[in-house]
Amino acid sequence: MFSKACEYGIKASIYISHQSQKGERVSLVAIAKAIDSPLAFTAKILQSLAKNNIIVSSKGSTGGYEIPKDMQAKIMLFHIVEAIDGDKIYNGCGLGLPQCNERKPCPIHFQFKAIRDDLKVMLKTTAIEELANGLHKGIAFLKR
Questions:
Q1: Which of 37, 106, 114, 142 is the most exposed, having the fewest neighbouring CB atoms within 10 Å of its CB?
Q2: What is the CATH number of the domain that holds 18?
Q3: Which residues contact 50 (CB under 8 A, 6 or more apart)?
């Protein structure tokens, strides 16, 4: 459903949030390893997340990536998806037909629209902090 870049972006944001809750900044290498993502691809994703004010990048010997604690409850999954994939996930046809719309629907248009609408609500109401807390409590994981 999400692009690979978006999947990695969500995982990276959760990992960075989790580490930030412990007062730690994390390096590009540590993030790529934690989410099992190629280094160069991870760098590009992190650059997009930083550009969209989802994560903070600091340079230097004590640098790395973080999400300030006061921002974690405000950053929703929606922001990450929008920063990486845009809004195409909310508008595309379930069968990939370019001409599908309300007036000329494909066979699954209305069922798929309901699922897309539910997904949008979930993404807009799920904070990165909540997901990072799942890692902290040991009830969620990022890798096998």
A1: 114
A2: 1.10.10.10
A3: 56, 57, 65
State the average pLDDT over residues 31-56.
Answer: 97
Domain ranges, residue 68: 4-84+126-136
Give the phi and the psi of residue 67 in degrees, each rounded to 5. Answer: -130, 110
Rounded to whole angstroms, how far apart are CA atoms 140 and 103? 42
Q: Which pTM was predicted?
A: 0.90
Residue 4: CA count within 13 A, CB half-sphere: 6
Q: Higher confidence at residue 58 or residue 62?
A: 58
With 80 as the cut, is the pLDDT of residue 140 above it? no
Cα–chain center distance at 83: 8
